[in-house]
Design brief:
Belongs to the 1-acyl-sn-glycerol-3-phosphate acyltransferase family. It comes from Equus caballus (Horse). By secondary structure, the protein is of the alpha/beta class. It has eleven helices and eight strands. Strand 3, helix 5 and strand 4 form a beta-alpha-beta unit. Helix 1 crosses helix 11. The longest helix has 35 residues. The radius of gyration is 22 Å and the shape is globular. 35% of the residues are buried.
Length: 370
């Protein structure tokens, strides 16, 4: 499509802004990630002496790194509106988030909307596609203890074994409390046709805005992390008693991400900021883990029901521009999620000062040795 004379200046500004944002992102990564690694190396003696304190400090640095990623979208005008239940009330408990997956921007959106949920981001574990291991952030996720899962039938059983072992070795030993899981096992655009074909063959719900979830990772997480009572039933939380002292995983947070006009955002847009300011909408429903079945068939039905409800939520959103009210409520209440500009300035300042400090330290030892 030809560009008119009136559009040329605007497109020129978009290009210049995108290049400036990309340059800042590169500089940010070149400083922040090496600084994080240097601090982790320096703190290894503390890991031996006081592992709990070490992982707490590491978690704070991890939260700051994710806060920087969130800020890239924030200053491009990409904000988040939250709907449904307020998950701040359970931020100190163990929980698993089950999220629909449309594009790479889903991860950035969650990085933003979880920043104001106390220490959740510091204590979180992500389950993500193994391709992310080879990105600039891969080394940080490896150190933090996130799990990279390889997709495909040929890898599925083996990956579930690896996940179980990873949870046993890294989840509680590193003070993790929340897990983010995308049960669909891939992006909507890639899995929709396969999911719909499977649904037709097996007389299952025909979904358009989400796909039928895969059960394996969810079952492994619940089996590994849900505490058991003496009678073998789950010892989970209760919606009326948020200060529950029960151990283990207590909540399942059904999380639905919706983009205006069903146009998902990718990470390139988040970084370069060439899309007009956009509000992404995130809806939460919280289920006590004691209400979630653990047997395979029952869990499968339960998950299918949740994703059928997601389909209805998204259909309503795309028709009206808002999510429907919670059951028992007359009106839907939304909450605008905000980031503190002062906090963003602080973490970037500390990061660049740390980069300058480590550069001088490494340069000093280099000259001493050579």
């Amino acid at each position: 499509m030809a560009v008119t004379l009136e559009e040329a200046p605007w497109l020129g500004w978009i290009l210049v802004k995108a290049l400036m944002r990309f340059a800042f992102m590169v500089a940010n990564n070149l400083v922040a990630i090496p600084s994080y690694i240097c601090y982790v190396i320096m703190l290894q003696p503390l890991r031996v002496l006081d592992s709990k304190r070490f992982w707490y400090i590491e978690g704070i640095m991890y939260k700051w790194l994710l806060g920087m990623v969130a800020s890239w979208g924030w200053y491009a005008g990409y904000t988040v509106m939250e709907w449904g239940e307020d998950i701040k009330a359970i931020s100190k408990d163990e929980a698993v988030m089950l999220v629909n997956h449309q594009a790479t921007g889903d991860v950035c959106t969650l990085m933003m909307c979880l920043q104001d949920k106390g220490l959740v981001v510091a204590q979180i574990m992500w389950l993500m596609d193994h391709i992310f291991k080879y990105t600039n952030f891969g080394i940080v996720s490896l150190i933090h203890g996130d799990f990279f899962i390889r997709q495909g039938k040929s890898h599925r059983d083996q990956q579930l074994v690896f996940l179980k072992k990873h949870l046993e070795n890294n989840y509680r030993s590193r003070g993790r409390k929340w897990i983010v899981l995308f049960p669909e096992g891939g992006f909507l655009r890639k899995r929709r046709e396969t999911s719909q074909t499977f649904a037709k063959k097996n007389n299952l719900p025909f979904l358009t805005h989400v796909t039928l979830p895969r059960i394996g990772a969810t079952k492994i997480i619940l089996s590994a992390l849900v505490a058991r009572q003496e009678n073998g039933s789950p010892a989970g939380g209760d919606t009326k008693e948020l200060d529950s002292k029960s151990k283990g995983l207590q909540w399942v947070i059904d999380t639905t991400i919706a983009y205006p006009k069903a146009e998902p955002m990718d990470i390139q847009t988040w970084i370069l900021g060439y899309r007009k300011p956009t509000v992404t909408h995130v809806h939460y429903r919280v289920f006590p883990v004691k209400d979630v079945p653990l047997e395979t068939d029952d869990l499968t039905d339960w998950l299918y029901q949740r994703f059928t409800e997601k389909e209805d939520l998204l259909s309503h959103f795309y028709e009206t521009g808002a999510f429907p009210p919670l059951k028992g409520h007359k009106e839907a209440v939304s909450r605008e999620m905000t980031l503190s500009n002062m906090w963003i300035f602080l973490i970037h300042s500390v990061t660049f000062l740390s980069g300058y400090m480590w550069y001088n330290i490494i340069q000093y030892f280099y000259h001493c040795l050579f």
